[in-house]
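Dear H.,

Thanks for agreeing to be a second pair of eyes. The structure we're designing against is below in token form, covering all 191 positions.
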């Protein structure tokens, strides 16, 4: 036996081709009718082939799978995936939880003798929300905000005698007010 291969039989050379030898052949047939003291038979093996699935692990789009990847061959890296609010660092793992010891090394790891699923690892991006007031105290920026995080509004609301605070608004680069921000608005809604 040979890991990753199937034995497909014994073969002999006719000088121009390999011919499969079966159990019903006589020595005379194997020796091609020549008076030989010995003949050489070569064992032939066929490598197993398996499929590789790339799982985007809840974000982005799954890359195209590899079908019939030969055992022992290197696997081509499908590249880095993208999704708003998340970063894929280009690494792939044999575990969906992406522990460091399960990282696939495309330079040295080779196709195992079974189907394989590799999982993308994602990190949620962090953002900063800055607040600008024309009157009253300006709240400190809110840092480490994630894409789907809500409750972005500072508390308490700013106040200044003689003014009524109307709420927070998102503005474009020119300062034109675009949308009113509510407490359940997420960072992704604003981007």
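And this is the sequence the design step returned. I haven't edited it by hand at all.
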């Amino acid at each position: 036996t040979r890991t990753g291969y199937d034995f497909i039989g014994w073969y002999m050379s006719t000088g121009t081709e390999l011919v499969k030898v079966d159990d019903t052949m006589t020595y005379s047939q194997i020796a091609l009718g020549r008076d030989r003291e010995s003949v050489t038979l070569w064992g032939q093996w066929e490598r197993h082939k398996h499929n590789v699935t790339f799982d985007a692990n809840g974000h982005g789009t799954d890359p195209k799978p590899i079908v019939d990847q030969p055992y022992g061959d290197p696997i081509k890296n499908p590249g880095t995936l993208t999704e708003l609010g998340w970063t894929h660092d280009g690494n792939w793992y044999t575990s969906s939880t992406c522990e460091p010891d399960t990282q696939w090394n495309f330079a040295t790891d080779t196709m195992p003798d079974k189907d394989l699923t590799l999982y993308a690892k994602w990190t949620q991006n962090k953002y900063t929300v800055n607040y600008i007031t024309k009157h009253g105290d300006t709240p400190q920026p809110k840092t480490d905000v994630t894409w789907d995080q809500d409750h972005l509004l500072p508390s308490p609301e700013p106040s200044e005698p003689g003014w009524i605070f109307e709420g927070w608004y998102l503005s474009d680069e020119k300062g034109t007010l675009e949308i009113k921000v509510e407490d359940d608005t997420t960072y992704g809604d604003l981007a």
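Two observations from my side: The CA atoms of residues 92 and 120 lie 5 Å apart. The helical segments are 27-30, 187-190.

Warmly,
E.
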